[in-house]
Amino acid sequence: MSWTSVLDVAGGISLLLGAFMCLAGAIGLVRFPDTLSRLHAATKPQTLGLILVLLGLALTIRTWGAVTTLVLVGATQFFTSPVTAHLVGRSAYRHGNVRKDLLVVDELSEALARHDAQDNTPDSSP
């Protein structure tokens, strides 16, 4: 068995695992009850699934131009997905689209209460 055959098999396995992770994330988007749970399903398995798919493509294609492009796509997804989920989660929380009975620890409500109390204090400046 040559090394190209081994890389092709590894690429195929990586593609299948990545597709499975993306499918699991999509099922989680449909099945989970609230925004924060859906965000978890949208970011964690989807990002890992995309990284595995890109790895499988890189192992299968094996040209520098394609691998460079795939690395850039993976890095962009890896760095932007958590930030986007964080901002969407905070926005959903502020607009009341979060089921608070499912939260184990609610640190954001304390921070927002402190912020609101600070905004409501009168200024002592002349």
Portion of residues in beta strands equals: under 5%
**What does the largest sheet look like?**
none
* CATH overall fold name: Helix Hairpins
Helix content: over 70%
Total strand count, please? 0
The unreliable regions are none
Topology of helices and strands:
Elements: H1 3-31, H2 35-61, H3 64-94, H4 107-120
Helix pairs in contact: 1-2, 2-3
Care to describe what's here?
This protein has 126 residues and is an all-alpha fold. The protein has one domain (3-120): Helix Hairpins, CATH 1.10.287. The chain is 80% helix and 0% strand. The protein is built from four helices and no strands. It has helices at residues 3-31, 35-61, 64-94, 107-120. Helix 1 (3-31) packs antiparallel against helix 2. The longest helix is centred in the middle third of the chain and has 31 residues, at 64-94. The protein starts with a helix and ends in a 6-residue tail after the last helix. The mean pLDDT is 89.
In short:
The protein is an all-alpha fold. The chain has helices at residues 3-31, 35-61, 64-94, 107-120.
Keywords:
elongated, mainly alpha, Helix Hairpins, 4 helices, 126 residues
